[in-house]
């Protein structure tokens, strides 16, 4: 038997202190299998040891929240006895090492989190961050990640309807791949992971276990360095066809009454799934590892417990119901094995060849999981950029340049590789503010979006955290949806550094403030720390995935200009900033002046809420014909995006506008179009909140945006906008 | 000069293709198939005239493009 | 009109096409499990839907061609029952030999999901009677392997016998290289069997047969079938 | 007993993967590549003990499943 040396302990990522705690709990030295179990259960990834304290400060409840954080996914009531079940999860490190498989298995994992709860997945989204477009690795990473997300989602048959992509050199060595799944479940058929019933069978279903990704969970919790290459064999390969079978088989079984509890095997596989189920139920579990379906010969208990083979689930069944379940899994061609049962001992006991190979107390191990209150420092405030110090680039140059810049250019090349229409309910395809999927068989819809502006978060974590939530809320609102709840994916650097920890703390504060002010609680999420390479941290990226409901699809809004001669109205400008405009951290400043600096635009949550409620009211009353929120790139970019979507020009009547007025990124604003007959009434009603800035018009080859006697042809804007990404990708 | 590159999954790496092929062969009644694994072959037609130089160049191509060395291994045959 | 949709374990457009069939014909199709060789009696139409039948790891449709249900489909086709293969269904029909040729990886090797324009090349079919000859329609594609290939003899037979039903074209109806999304031979998007009762096409008519989804150009295909087969 | 099946596109059938590989190699600076073609290799682990019987069976598998003879040819190696 392997003796546990300090070296082995270190390899398992446990500190001396943590190891001492292991000794205290067991009253003896652990064997290797036991040490492996401790190491994954106490890894950052599984234990949230650095983040727990701050996650607890997020608002998580509302009358419509059925299940907040703490389960595989969050659950909200969406009316008609239905629920939306959703979560987002990162697969950053695996995707950097093997982009195709890393991203593919990321999608597989988040799908399982959602259908584990009894929901049929109806949409996938993905939030991606890559390095500089001209970095030698970027192209390979984009093509692999996108193909992997598509390869998995397309095969499984869940439409990939939305997401976001940013580029920044600080992601060169550490890309972000955050995948989100939204599912729909009947309100009376939600499944949880809490085990119950001493003696009940514990059942393994899905793919066989191989030596995949052993120590993946530990890898996701350690900073990257040059010898990460060595860790390569831990990459897992996804099998989307098996996932599809697993979805169908699980949902078929869930329609019967035989499942007591169910949990997917994600990070730390069999260990964390069995552990969590028993722990939540206050029970013990005994597993006969010989019965685990194995893909390879000569596997050890250690490997079986730590393997991260994909497409597997663990269930507790009602006693005697094994044959019902087995018949369904066999019908779908999947492995099925009763591998153990629940006990009242509160211990996890593993046997192998008739011998006990691990015997651990469950509660003490879970309760003693380390929880750190890491030292943190706030980010020093950045100075406000004075627009007077920023050069004026003529808008006719600035607009095409921005529309073809990395963070604003069209993502068509990406979403055309995703089947975004399968299931026949995609009523708003990628390219708008929020994707909208019809609730099957109804005239209602789910709207969803993912958002975060990392450059804002880096400059001011609190404000950036607020902004991420506000932008998600705004995107849902712009589609005419009632925003209901969010999932978050907190991507940060090494939390052992006080400034990084300070970013995390600040972002949590901003998130919490915005979620509270907007009645937009957090129902699930994921934390990914140690996103650093050679000591260089990624920009802090708390990605927000928002979900809302549209009660009548006839009253959904899109960004597309609909008809010529309609008034273009901006809603939400504050009287004091109407003519000025916030350039700090704007894309104008970065892309046209080469300056990435300043304080980000402030987010006034009260104003945000008021404006959003007004705009949603107008959409729901059928008074606007198109709606788009103003975000990256500012007002003129928003108008240009609407024009491109509708293939129709715009004649703007702003008088001698400054770059700050056109491209400033002030928050809480929307652009809408209003049929001519409704303009006067609307302006009178909204007062200073609304401003008529021009009219739609011009189609075909002559379509253009005109302003102050100058014009830019839509065809030129389109070429810049659509050409950039295919250009980078060489296709 | 012709070169042939065989790219196969490393042992232990899940091969969904191979698994599916084995299943399909079983359902067609070919019971005696214990395992199937799928790989790629890439045939290259090269300008080179020197076999050793060609092999070195193809090795470079494999590492840079033809094989995904994270999960695959490769083998080169040069046919003078 | 009585129809059946074959359901392979990896089918994922089975429900979508069932919805379209029910909307146009007023009658839901029978969902027929792949492992069952005996198709329902008195069928007028069998649909082999889109998706990834058995994961499609070896070649798209290769394994599905041997499914028990396909024996039933073959027999039905021999009896003259109409067979419609959409996307993966087209691939399956080629692999079974019910349609000639093969579908290879897209020219640019990428999966492609987008609306394309098609020119209706013949209305002398059970499937296209409700279109006008030469009509240009907009229908989505969503595939990785839609690059149709066939040998010269097949190519000539398809042309001579008026068996090319849809071709990729530009919005004005011109059949150009630029309008060809996947490298298909002669921009072919859909073809008929010799008896004209089996149609395979890569685009998904069921995805634009509902105004809510942004278009209805797919609907006449189902309406044509309803009229021809009722 | 092990058998290996090589499946390659028939000459004359355009090979999009091969073409893409050749292009990618060129853009990586490997100029000397005149052509690239990509094929599949399927490795089978068989119960058979008789090489001839194995070959016949694998030939059957190829015709029924492993190759699409409309566009592909195959070659079998049996390794006793
Ligand atoms: N940033 C966060 N905000 C809110 N909840 C979170 C966050 N991170 C994790 N959670 C919640 O903690 C629980 C455990 O998360 P995780 O380990 O990622 O789930 P899983 O084991 O299903 O992968 C989940 O319920 C998740 O929703
Ligand atoms: Mg989970």
TrEMBL record, chain A:
Domain PurM-like C-terminal: 198-352, 564-697
GO biological process, one term: 'de novo' IMP biosynthetic process
Domain of life from the UniProt record: Bacteria
Phosphoribosylformylglycinamidine synthase linker domain ranges (all copies): 10-49
Pfam families hit by this protein: AIRS, AIRS_C, FGAR-AT_linker
Positions annotated to bind Mg(2+) 1: 89, 526
UniProt key word Protein biosynthesis: no
Function as written in the Swiss-Prot or TrEMBL entry: Part of the phosphoribosylformylglycinamidine synthase complex involved in the purines biosynthetic pathway. Catalyzes the ATP-dependent conversion of formylglycinamide ribonucleotide (FGAR) and glutamine to yield formylglycinamidine ribonucleotide (FGAM) and glutamate. The FGAM synthase complex is composed of three subunits. PurQ produces an ammonia molecule by converting glutamine to glutamate. PurL transfers the ammonia molecule to FGAR to form FGAM in an ATP-dependent manner.
Subunit and partners: Monomer. Part of the FGAM synthase complex composed of 1 PurL, 1 PurQ and 2 PurS subunits.
Protein's name according to its UniProt entry: Phosphoribosylformylglycinamidine synthase subunit PurL
Origin species: Rhodospira trueperi
UniProtKB/TrEMBL annotation, chains B, D:
Compartments in which it is found: Cytoplasm
Keyword Cytoplasm: yes
Enzyme class: ligase
Chemical reaction(s) catalysed: N(2)-formyl-N(1)-(5-phospho-beta-D-ribosyl)glycinamide + L-glutamine + ATP + H2O = 2-formamido-N(1)-(5-O-phospho-beta-D-ribosyl)acetamidine + L-glutamate + ADP + phosphate + H(+)
Record-stated family: Belongs to the PurS family.
Described purpose of this protein according to its UniProt entry: Part of the phosphoribosylformylglycinamidine synthase complex involved in the purines biosynthetic pathway. Catalyzes the ATP-dependent conversion of formylglycinamide ribonucleotide (FGAR) and glutamine to yield formylglycinamidine ribonucleotide (FGAM) and glutamate. The FGAM synthase complex is composed of three subunits. PurQ produces an ammonia molecule by converting glutamine to glutamate. PurL transfers the ammonia molecule to FGAR to form FGAM in an ATP-dependent manner.
Highest taxon of source: Bacteria
Biological classification of the source: Bacteria, Pseudomonadati, Pseudomonadota, Alphaproteobacteria, Rhodospirillales
Keywords per UniProt: ATP-binding, Cytoplasm, Ligase, Nucleotide-binding, Purine biosynthesis
Pathway: Purine metabolism; IMP biosynthesis via de novo pathway; 5-amino-1-(5-phospho-D-ribosyl)imidazole from N(2)-formyl-N(1)-(5-phospho-D-ribosyl)glycinamide: step 1/2
SUBUNIT field: Part of the FGAM synthase complex composed of 1 PurL, 1 PurQ and 2 PurS subunits.
InterPro entries linked to this entry: PurS, PurS-like_sf
Record protein name field: Phosphoribosylformylglycinamidine synthase subunit PurS
GO biological process: 'de novo' IMP biosynthetic process
NCBIfam families: phosphoribosylformylglycinamidine synthase subunit PurS, PRK05974.1
GO molecular function, one term: phosphoribosylformylglycinamidine synthase activity
From TrEMBL, chain C:
Cross-referenced NCBIfam families: FGAM_synth_I (TIGR01737), PRK03619.1 (NF002957)
InterPro entries per the UniProt record, alphabetical: Class_I_gatase-like (IPR029062), PRibForGlyAmidine_synth_PurQ (IPR010075)
Catalytic machinery residues: 87 (nucleophile), 204, 206
Name under which the protein is recorded: Phosphoribosylformylglycinamidine synthase subunit PurQ
Localisation per UniProt entry: Cytoplasm
Chief place where the protein resides: cytoplasm
Signal sequence region: none
Record's keyword terms, sorted: ATP-binding, Cytoplasm, Glutamine amidotransferase, Hydrolase, Ligase, Nucleotide-binding, Purine biosynthesis
Superkingdom of the source species: Bacteria
Coiled-coil ranges from the UniProt annotation: none
EC numbers: 6.3.5.3, 3.5.1.2
Job description of the protein: Part of the phosphoribosylformylglycinamidine synthase complex involved in the purines biosynthetic pathway. Catalyzes the ATP-dependent conversion of formylglycinamide ribonucleotide (FGAR) and glutamine to yield formylglycinamidine ribonucleotide (FGAM) and glutamate. The FGAM synthase complex is composed of three subunits. PurQ produces an ammonia molecule by converting glutamine to glutamate. PurL transfers the ammonia molecule to FGAR to form FGAM in an ATP-dependent manner.
Classification via PROSITE patterns: GATASE_TYPE_1
Alphabetized GO MF terms: ATP binding; glutaminase activity; phosphoribosylformylglycinamidine synthase activity
Stretches that traverse the bilayer: none
Gene giving rise to this polypeptide: purQ
Lineage: Bacteria, Pseudomonadati, Pseudomonadota, Alphaproteobacteria, Rhodospirillales
Any GO CC annotation of this UniProt entry: cytoplasm
Pfam family, one: GATase_5
Assembly notes: Part of the FGAM synthase complex composed of 1 PurL, 1 PurQ and 2 PurS subunits.
GO biological process: 'de novo' IMP biosynthetic process
Catalytic reaction(s) noted: L-glutamine + H2O = L-glutamate + NH4(+); N(2)-formyl-N(1)-(5-phospho-beta-D-ribosyl)glycinamide + L-glutamine + ATP + H2O = 2-formamido-N(1)-(5-O-phospho-beta-D-ribosyl)acetamidine + L-glutamate + ADP + phosphate + H(+)
Pathway involvement of the protein, from the record: Purine metabolism; IMP biosynthesis via de novo pathway; 5-amino-1-(5-phospho-D-ribosyl)imidazole from N(2)-formyl-N(1)-(5-phospho-D-ribosyl)glycinamide: step 1/2
């Amino acid at each position: 038997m392997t003796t546990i040396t300090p070296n082995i302990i270190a390899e398992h990522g446990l500190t001396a202190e943590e190891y001492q705690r292991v000794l205290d709990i067991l009253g003896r030295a652990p064997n290797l299998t036991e040490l492996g179990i401790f190491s994954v259960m106490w890894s950052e990834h599984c234990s949230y040891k650095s983040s727990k304290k701050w996650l607890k400060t997020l608002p998580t409840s509302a009358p419509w929240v059925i299940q907040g954080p703490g389960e595989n996914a969050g659950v909200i009531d969406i009316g008609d006895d239905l629920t939306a079940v959703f979560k987002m999860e990162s697969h950053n490190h695996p995707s950097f090492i093997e982009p195709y498989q890393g991203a593919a298995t990321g999608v597989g994992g988040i799908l399982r989190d959602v259908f584990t709860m009894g929901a049929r997945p109806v949409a996938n989204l993905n939030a991606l961050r890559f390095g500089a477009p001209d970095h030698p690795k970027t192209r390979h990473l984009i093509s692999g990640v996108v193909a992997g997300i598509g390869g998995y989602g397309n095969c499984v048959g869940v439409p990939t309807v939305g997401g976001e992509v940013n580029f920044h050199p600080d992601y060169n060595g550490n890309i972000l791949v955050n995948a989100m799944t939204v599912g729909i479940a009947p309100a009376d058929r939600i499944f949880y992971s809490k085990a119950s019933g001493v003696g009940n069978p514990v059942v393994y279903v899905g793919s066989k276990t191989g030596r995949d990704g052993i120590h993946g969970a530990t890898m996701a919790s350690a900073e990257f360095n040059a010898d990460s290459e060595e860790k390569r064999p831990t990459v897992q390969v996804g099998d989307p066809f098996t996932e599809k079978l697993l979805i169908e088989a699980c949902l078929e079984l869930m329609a019967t009454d035989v499942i007591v509890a169910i949990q997917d095997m994600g990070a730390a596989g069999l260990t964390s799934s069995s552990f969590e189920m028993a722990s939540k139920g206050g029970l013990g579990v005994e597993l006969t590892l010989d019965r685990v379906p194995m893909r390879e010969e000569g596997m050890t208990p250690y490997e079986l417990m730590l393997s991260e083979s994909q497409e597997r689930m663990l269930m507790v069944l009602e006693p005697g119901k094994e044959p019902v379940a087995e018949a369904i899994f066999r019908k779908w061609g999947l492995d099925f094995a009763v591998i153990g049962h629940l006990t009242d001992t509160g211990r996890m006991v593993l046997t192998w060849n008739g011998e006990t190979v691990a015997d651990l107390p469950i509660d003490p191990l879970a309760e003693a999981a380390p929880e750190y209150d890491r030292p943190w420092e706030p980010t020093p405030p950045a100075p406000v950029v004075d627009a007077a110090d920023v050069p004026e680039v003529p808008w006719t140059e600035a607009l095409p340049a921005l529309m073809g810049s990395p963070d604003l250019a069209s993502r068509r090349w990406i979403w055309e590789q995703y089947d975004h229409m399968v299931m026949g309910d995609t009523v708003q395809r990628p390219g708008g503010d929020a994707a909208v999927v019809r609730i099957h068989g109804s005239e209602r819809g789910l709207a969803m979006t993912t958002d975060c502006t990392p450059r804002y978060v880096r400059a001011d974590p609190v404000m950036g955290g607020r902004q991420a939530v506000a932008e998600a809320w705004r995107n849902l609102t712009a589609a005419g949806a009632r925003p209901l709840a969010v999932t978050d994916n907190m991507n940060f650097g090494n939390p052992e550094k006080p400034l990084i920890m300070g970013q995390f703390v600040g972002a949590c504060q901003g998130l919490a403030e915005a979620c509270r002010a907007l009645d937009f609680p957090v129902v699930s999420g994921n934390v990914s720390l140690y996103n650093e390479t050679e000591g260089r941290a990624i920009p802090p990226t708390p990605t927000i995935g928002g979900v809302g409901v549209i009660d009548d699809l006839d009253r959904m809004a899109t960004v597309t200009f609909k008809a010529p001669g309609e008034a273009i109205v901006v809603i939400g400008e504050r009287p004091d900033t109407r003519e000025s405009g916030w350039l700090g951290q704007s894309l104008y400043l970065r892309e046209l002046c080469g300056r990435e600096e300043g304080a980000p635009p402030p987010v006034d949550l009260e104003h945000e809420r008021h404006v959003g409620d007004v705009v949603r009211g107008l959409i729901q009353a059928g008074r606007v014909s198109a709606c788009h929120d103003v975000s990256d790139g500012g007002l003129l970019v928003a108008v240009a995006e609407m024009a491109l979507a509708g293939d129709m020009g715009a004649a703007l009547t702003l008088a001698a506008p400054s770059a700050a007025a056109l491209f400033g990124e002030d928050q809480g604003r929307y652009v809408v179009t209003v049929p001519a007959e409704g303009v006067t009434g609307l302006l009178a009603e909204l007062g200073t909140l609304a401003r008529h800035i021009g009219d739609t018009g011009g189609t075909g080859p002559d379509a253009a945006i005109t302003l102050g006697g100058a014009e830019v042809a839509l065809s030129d804007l389109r070429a810049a906008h659509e050409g950039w990404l295919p250009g980078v990708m060489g296709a | 000069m012709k070169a042939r590159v065989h790219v196969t999954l490393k042992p232990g790496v899940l091969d969904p293709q191979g698994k599916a092929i084995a299943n399909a062969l079983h359902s067609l009644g070919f019971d005696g198939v214990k395992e199937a694994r799928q790989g790629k072959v890439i045939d290259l037609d090269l300008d080179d005239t020197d076999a050793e130089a060609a092999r070195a160049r193809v090795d470079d191509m494999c590492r840079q493009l033809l094989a995904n060395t994270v999960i695959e291994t490769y083998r080169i045959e040069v046919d003078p | 009109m009585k129809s059946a949709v074959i359901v392979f374990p990896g089918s994922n457009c089975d429900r979508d096409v069932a919805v379209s069939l029910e909307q146009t014909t007023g009658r839901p199709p029978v969902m027929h499990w792949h492992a069952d060789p005996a198709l329902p009696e008195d069928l007028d139409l069998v649909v082999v839907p889109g998706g990834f039948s058995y994961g499609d790891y070896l070649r798209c449709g290769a394994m599905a061609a041997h499914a028990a249900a396909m024996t039933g489909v073959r027999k039905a086709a021999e009896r003259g029952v109409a067979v419609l293969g959409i996307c993966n269904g087209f691939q399956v029909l080629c692999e079974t030999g019910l349609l000639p040729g093969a579908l290879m990886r897209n020219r640019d090797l990428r999966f492609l999901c987008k609306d394309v324009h098609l020119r209706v090349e013949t209305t002398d079919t059970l499937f296209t009677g409700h279109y006008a000859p030469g009509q240009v329609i907009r229908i989505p594609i969503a595939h990785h392997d839609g690059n149709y290939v066939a040998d010269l003899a097949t190519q000539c037979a398809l042309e001579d016998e008026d068996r090319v039903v849809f071709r990729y074209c530009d919005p004005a109806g011109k059949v150009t290289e630029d309008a060809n999304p996947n490298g298909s031979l002669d921009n072919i998007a859909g073809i008929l069997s010799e008896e004209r009762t089996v149609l395979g096409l890569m685009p998904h008519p069921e995805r634009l047969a509902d105004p809510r989804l942004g278009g209805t150009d797919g609907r006449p295909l189902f309406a044509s079938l309803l009229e021809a087969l009722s």
